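Minutes, project check-in

Agenda point 3 was the complex the collaborators sent over. CS summarized: two entities, 660 residues total, and the question is how they sit relative to each other. Sequences were read into the notes so everyone works from the same version.
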Amino acid sequence: MKKIINEASHVVNEMLEGMVAAYPQELRRLEGYDVVVRNTLHQAKVALVSGGGSGHEPAHGGYVGRGMLDAAVAGAVFTSPTPDQVYEAIKAVDTGKGVLLIIKNYTGDVLNFEMAADMAAEDGIKVDKVIVNDDVAVENSTWTTGRRGIAGTLFVHKIAGAKAEQGACLEAVKKVAEKVIANVRTMGMALTPCTVPEAGKPSFDIGENEVEIGLGIHGEPGTHREILRKADEIVEHLMDKILADLSLNQQDEVAVMVNGLGGTPLMELFIANRKVDQILKEKGISIGKTFVGNYMTSIEMAGFSISILKLDEELKSLLLEPASTPAFKN
Amino acid sequence: MKKIINEASHVVNEMLEGMVAAYPQELRRLEGYDVVVRNTLHQAKVALVSGGGSGHEPAHGGYVGRGMLDAAVAGAVFTSPTPDQVYEAIKAVDTGKGVLLIIKNYTGDVLNFEMAADMAAEDGIKVDKVIVNDDVAVENSTWTTGRRGIAGTLFVHKIAGAKAEQGACLEAVKKVAEKVIANVRTMGMALTPCTVPEAGKPSFDIGENEVEIGLGIHGEPGTHREILRKADEIVEHLMDKILADLSLNQQDEVAVMVNGLGGTPLMELFIANRKVDQILKEKGISIGKTFVGNYMTSIEMAGFSISILKLDEELKSLLLEPASTPAFKN
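CS then shared the predicted structure for the full assembly.
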């Protein structure tokens, strides 16, 4: 295992220390917890809390800030955060307007965030949740009942975050988050596995010229393996699956995210985006906004995902609102 | 070679197509050239042009925009752009206030940018240049006489860009760029080589537990190879070399960049930043601003560099000025 780390068992703690050291104006660590909190809480807004296993950086700590999240909870690598950590995050950011939990659909995450919500509700905090399940690759998976939540989660952070920042009530913020979830689809592929530091070896073996289509962000199996094809063919396949599930018509407008899984050079993401752009334009679909980069990663995995969000006037306007977080600025 | 590409010989062209497709409001391609230009030129400012071989994305096209570059010229992967390409970039962005070329110190880049400057001068365009040589690892190298120009170049783009945006004259923009160059030092290390698409195989071989200290962003040899040590020890070594070359005293203020080479997970960059932060604070040096991410890459190389910029009031103020480019926003 070749990694720039000290001890495998310290990676999450040391990563969080390095993160808050980098952005002391924006972030603070909740003392004694693996929770990153917005430094200056906006006192009159619904608070947004997300998180999950570590290894998906900049998700989710990098999205804490003005116009996005108020707290992010970091579990061990690829492991759900425990309910007490989520509970502390909720308590730290609630200002009386309520808290919305944005949960990626993994069984452990859903269970632990829900337990935390129950604990907070007993304290009289108004808590609600949405569950993101944007991955069209497979129904059910290693750690998931139903579809997995992956890079499309970013659009939920951004749009619900903008709505909350405008002072909307918890019900309204939840409603727009659910609208994003109903309109976003993602599918990915990988060239290489990744190595969880405490495991010390790659999460799976894959042949020299082989790729995995539709895999999850923890290396969960996808739809199939195949010999590496040209970028344009791969993108066509992923877009076919996405567009088969997300009904789009001519004149519709979308937002696009071409997301690197951590080890993919930006050059390749741009080459993929070129084809995404061509496919959408050929169908008469316009693109309101495109994001290309490492937004939701799998440690150092090489590969990428495509997310398509169908926009309406409200979603577009909220997507384009200012946001200022370490990893996402508008 | 496992890459998300179509043809190895098309990567630069297709990458640029995918880049301008992603940011149509910010960027346009100079038709017929591998040049990316700021979409709306600021008519009354010195223009900044940079570039170099491709493979360092988001450098340099990602830094074209308000408060940074006006044009970026993309050579073939790890190959200097030809003088005619640089010449076209200069002509496209000059508005009569003059053009500053920001060149990373590689023999081919310096030669070709200088030839382009001569061609533009014959047209009556006022052109000047600065050469960035921030890499403290080695004197002279595979493609360089003197020190190499690497990630510290970002600080030159940002600070000279802010100065130009304020309407300063060419001499003043050049002067502040030179002040950045005089005050920035960088050193890096790598865990893995990278593969130039047209070569089809890794740029060098390296043992399972071996790392290369001080290597260049094209895989040029560094100071030595060693067995992979703990992150903190690696950072200590790089910081020792940097601080031996950049005289800093208690009370001084610096900006920090922990730069990933393309294949390094953000988790590891934050772990490295944790130690950078500790070392500086122990010395009584304050940190005005920290950047952690993939700013100047070597395709999919795993590894990182540390850049330290000694700030004064002027440099800090310009560094913190707003900027809005695809890959850098303040």
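Noted in discussion: Chain B is about 30% helix and 20% strand.
Follow-up: revisit at the next meeting once the mutant set is ready.
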